[in-house]
Amino acid sequence: xxxxxxxxxxTNVLLHNSEAITCFADNTVxxxxxxxxxxxxxxxxxxxxxxxxxxxxRTLDRLRGQGSLGKGVVxxxxxxxxxxxxxxxxxxxxxxxxxxxNRIIATAYRLFKEGKRIIFxxxxxxxRLKADALGLAVMDFEKEKADFDQLYTGWRSIQVSTSxxxxxxxxxxxxxxxEEFLPNEFVxxxxxxxxxxxxxxxxxxxxxxxxxxxxxFDSAFNLRPRSMEQRVALExxxxxxxxxxxxxxxxxxxxxxxxxxxxxxxxxxxxKYEKLLVSRPVIPLGRDIGYLPGTKDEKxxxxxxxxxxxxxxxxxxxxxxxxxxxxxxxxxxxxxxxRIELEALTYIRGRSISRQYVIIDxxxxxxxxxxxxxxxxxxxxxKMILTGDPEQIDNPYLDASSNGLSYTVERLKGQDACGxxxxxxxxxxxxxxxxxxxx
Length: 439
Known about the structure:
Layout (H helix, E strand, L loop, with lengths): L4 E5 L1 H6 L11 E5 H10 L5 H17 L8 E2 L5 E5 L15 H14 L3 E5 L3 H9 L3 E3 L15 E6 L1 H8 L4 E2 L9 E7 L6 E6 L5 E4 L15 H11 L5 E6 L5 H15 L5 E6 L15 H8 L1 H13 L7 H12 L3 E5 L11 E5 L7 H8 L7 E6 L15 H9 L5 E6 L6 H9 L1
Parallel strand pairs: 1-2, 1-5, 2-4, 5-6, 7-9, 12-16, 12-17, 13-14, 13-15, 15-16
Antiparallel strand pairs: 3-4, 8-11, 9-10, 10-11
Helix pairs in contact: 2-3, 2-4, 7-8, 8-10, 10-11, 12-13
């Protein structure tokens, strides 16, 4: 077999990352004609898929000016981009060539039979299964991928002496000689003689210095944290020096509620930010219910109902825990006065968002490029919050490691203006805790 590898790219790889054709070093990237035809179908879309399709087509057009794509064009890094034109036959298998994915796999199989080193690359698990059954080497596209099992949690636990914990409670900085912390990393100090004697510290800058938490951030909008994890999350959410906070946790850990409480405290109760902007991907759980009637705000109310539920709870806290008609009127007033804005992510592209407290809920359903697009909207004085559960993804081409939320946590850890916390304890209810753990 020839030494150079031939990577056959499925269409979904290019729709996931428009730069994929230049990510395989000095090897050959093969694009079956079926891929080009599928890109043509997506190019008119006014979404991320359409944007990526157009970008790939422009890149191919630029390469076309350097030579014949049907014969292969050499790229800047020494690789080759090649569009195959051959019509595939049944290749002696039972796959139905009327299906576009199968024609792409058939191209890979034909090149494999010709003696080339073939690797089929797809974000579609089923397509990878079919290619593997034909004896082809397969892989997911992993350029923008983090190892979810090893993902940075934002805090660690270490054992120290009783005197060190006492010093922390006295408001003194601790120097932990054998440790190296990232900026905004938290540490749970556990007494080596009495495990119930603990203290929570924070490393504001990289190094081995830890200081106690700010008591001003003990609560937000009458909401008090129920666990150590929630307390350190609130520290990041309330600190104006931290511009980006990411919260990962299973259902019921309080990530969205904490973010909204901090947003209400900073943008409604005080004037640190001009408004609270909340958005989430419009991806349904289960079968879509189709087009919705009404204005944009009326449509958004249905998609944003989880946000309204949390806002009602928070507004109820100011009324002794009661959620009544006055609570709903209070939320409507804040929306009418533009103190709170609920927006679809579709409309964020192109905006410049200044002096706002921005919460992006369900961020695990976003691609790395979509998260980059959102974060790059942040203007002067804006704080961005990403929340989500990478183990509950509704996007068919993302997983716990390749989604934009996990990727952002891994890439931005250690940056002074960024902080992250992984929440593990469900605080919603005993039933919610049981469901998250056993179902």
